[in-house]
Amino acid sequence: MTVPVPRWRRRAYNVEAMRALARAQLPQPVFDFADGGAEDEQTLRRNETAFDEVALLPRPLSGAATRDLSITLFGQRLSMPVIVGPTGLAGLFWPDGERCAARAAQAAGTAFCLSHGSVCTLEELAGTGAAPRWMQVFIYKDRGFTRELTERAAQAGYDALVLTTDNQMLGNRERDIRNGFSIPPRFGLSGLAGMALKAEWLWRMRRDLKRVTFGNYVRPGEAADLKALAGRMASLLDPSMSWQDVDDLRKIWRGPLLLKGILHPDEARMGVERGIDGVIVSNHGGRQLDGAAASMDALPAIVDAISGRIPILIDGGIRRGSDVVKALALGAQACLVGRPQLWGLAVAGEAGVAHMLAIYRQEIDRVMGLCGVTSIAGIDRSLLHQNGRHT
Ligand SMILES: Cc1cc2nc3c(=O)[nH]c(=O)nc-3n(C[C@H](O)[C@H](O)[C@H](O)COP(=O)(O)O)c2cc1C
Fold first, then answer.
1. Ligand 1 site, residue 284, Cβ cutoff 6 A
2. What mean pLDDT do residues 319-334 have?
């Protein structure tokens, strides 16, 4: 007996199609919360278009009958160079969204990075056993809280710590302002009218909507009031953070430490000198500083600055297997995806994230085959037209 393929799966034929399906599922303010960027969304758009500027030069006569997509990162084998990046409030897109996404990543043989702003706590996520699992933190005004989260992550067996450096002030996300999106979500009259069309999401979330919170910020014995927690979180962000904070974190976290939000080669160089283990070239998916360079445009100078001393990861606008191959050809070791996991969750929870990862895998495999490359190590600048340099 053949099991029928769910209707969504037939329509989710690529990542952009998953975005369209997610849009149909979610109330507009929730869709826009994930989809939007800061201010005029220049950086958001650049992240994607930067990939169009890079062209591949295939060598089909290389005999790439089979392709091995696996990589080794910080001593751990991953089945492909795509990692699920940290996104706050994933539990708003599907009940228990973070644990669903982590399980899907584990099943796909890749790593999952939990956001500081997850709905479940970092301990609850660790309870799934999903690995490799990474934890993302900020430098808070209360340095004791940064230390506390770091120590909790170590206790809960996280494999790497990601310090996000580009969220020291909240970006100005004007779609959220226009939509009146708030945390916890409240929907005005026009929002409520649109809700009638989103009955599936409402029904699915009927219990969880009340429980959506920032799990890691709830103190023992404290009510998980999301509004109060969101206020506390925003007030904890600290634009005065500096390299001293990186040094302090380096002292307390013994495992791999990554800096996320690096765009300037000087910061990448400084990070290596101060003993960090990896950088994530990122502009927060265009959600923070509008006008910042696209990650892909910033990558080559960072590759030069680091000159192979530590792994370089990249995120922002990666929507195709060919984007992954282009980033690797320019010198990245792996890519993270942010919004695509939320679209996957919105469409079908764990199965949706699994499907999203399968799309990347198939596309990377096809691109490698068409380019005549048998392993990830075989992807380098020689695969790029004009060696990846823009004309
Ligand atoms: C809804 C949403 C929430 C996010 N929350 C976090 C977060 O808590 N911490 C963090 O470091 N990055 C966060 N990011 C940024 C992502 O980790 C990532 O840098 C970005 O989404 C990559 O771009 P992409 O969405 O184009 O793949 C968030 C992104 C989105 C879309």
1. yes
2. 98
Task: With beta carbons less than 8 A apart as the criterion, state whether 288 and 44 touch.
Answer: no
Range of the domain at 19: 7-388
Q: Is 264 a catalytic residue?
A: no
Query: Is residue 352 predicted with pLDDT exceeding 80?
Result: yes
Whether 192 is covered by a domain: the verdict is: yes
What is the secondary structure of 143-179 as a DSSP string? HHHHHHHHHHHHHTT-SEEEEE-S-SS----HHHHHH
Instruction: Evaluate: CB of 317 within 6 angstroms of ligand 1.
Output: yes
**Could you please report the per-residue DSSP string of 227-256?**
HHHHHHHHHHB-TT--HHHHHHHHHH--S-
Listed residue (365, 380, 364, 345) closest to 18, CA to CA: 345
**Among candidates 356, 382, 283, which has minimal Cα distance to 58?**
382
Could you tell me the CA-to-CA distances from 121 to 14, 218, 229 in Å, in that order? 31, 9, 14
CATH of residue 249's domain is: 3.20.20.70
**Which of 149, 178, 170, 131 has its CA nearest to residue 32?**
178
Kindly give the distance from the C-alpha atom of residue 283 to the centroid of ligand 1, in angstroms, as a whole number: 9
Q: What's the CA-to-centroid distance between 33 and ligand 1, angstroms?
A: 11
Asked if the structure places residue 2 within a domain, the reply is no
Ligand 1, atom 15: nearest CA belongs to which residue?
A: 284
pLDDT given at position 387: 67
pTM of the model: 0.96
Annotated active-site residue in 116, 284, 385, 390: 284
Ligand 1 center to 333 CA (angstroms): 19
Q: How many CB atoms lie within 10 A of CB 148?
A: 14
Structural domains counted in the chain: 1
Query: Quick check: is 1 in a domain?
Result: no
Q: With a 6 A CB cut-off, is 19 part of the ligand 1 pocket? A: no
Whether 261 is in the pocket of ligand 1, judged by its Cβ within 6 Å, is no
How close is the Cα of 342 to the center of ligand 1, in Å?
A: 10
